[in-house]
Design goal:
Largest sheet: 5 strands, parallel
Helix content: 40-55%
Shape: globular
Distance between the termini: 50 Å
Bound molecules: adenosine-5'-diphosphate
Strand content: 5-15%
Number of strands: 5
Length: 269
Amino acid sequence: MDVDRFRVKPGKPLRLADIDPAARPGFEGKKADGVAALAELTPQLDRLQELFYADGRHRLLVVFQAMDAGGKDGTIRSVFEGVNPQGVSVVSFKVPTPDQAAHDFLWRVHPHAPGNGEVTVFNRSHYEDVLVVRVHDLVPEARWRRRYHHIREFEQLLVDEGTTIVKFFLHISKDEQARRLQERIDDPRKHWKFSHADLEERKRWDDYAAAYQDAIHETSTTQAPWYVVPGNRNWYRNLVVATVMLNTFQSLDLRYPDPPPGLDGLKIT
Ligand code: ADP
């Protein structure tokens, strides 16, 4: 599957409204075929992640952003299903604590940047500081606008020091969000996911869409690209994300480190 079509090319205009969240380009099959295709990819991902961990020369940061009910949790669960938990960590960024809020917006983020051999998944991220912060007017516009620059520089710093970065925006439609939120109300097993705040945020859908569009456009660079992934169909979204992850690992020229000397013919007695 050609996933490069989802990569946001630096400097090119981006119109989220032109990207169909229900589309599934490059995959003609049905849902069952998509699920089967993912089942073939995840063992490969698991193997590559182990190699990545053993190799220990690279660091990988994966960022997930989406509207509420956009599917971040489900994607992370499905794509990273079988990986070795030793080498992968997920960090969720919530409303800043008073201590975090008393610092610059990257202060709480940098300590979570991955180390050698580590894959770190951000479930929300420093992008909240140009999204929810913009929509709710939490800091003056001049300040959040400068953050695009700071984010680009911060990510470039990580890249220059040996980190690979991929960023995913899971793109759902407003109707699909309604369907998913309704499900959280109707299905008792999903009540725990429901928050009244989500309904308030839904009223600001257009503001969020504008904020996402600008943030992605401003910060999709060659070295830290954004992928806008059609998100209405979970199985298609998972397939795209897994494919990008696989390509990313494969681009790294991973290898097992040299074995300790003297292993040849060594017999355990
Ligand atoms: P999620 O929706 O990711 O599953 P929560 O329901 O706990 O998790 O939502 C986390 C909330 O924290 C979101 O509403 C998000 O906008 C908010 N948040 C995250 N980072 C910031 C930030 N820097 N400033 C203000 N709010 C933030």
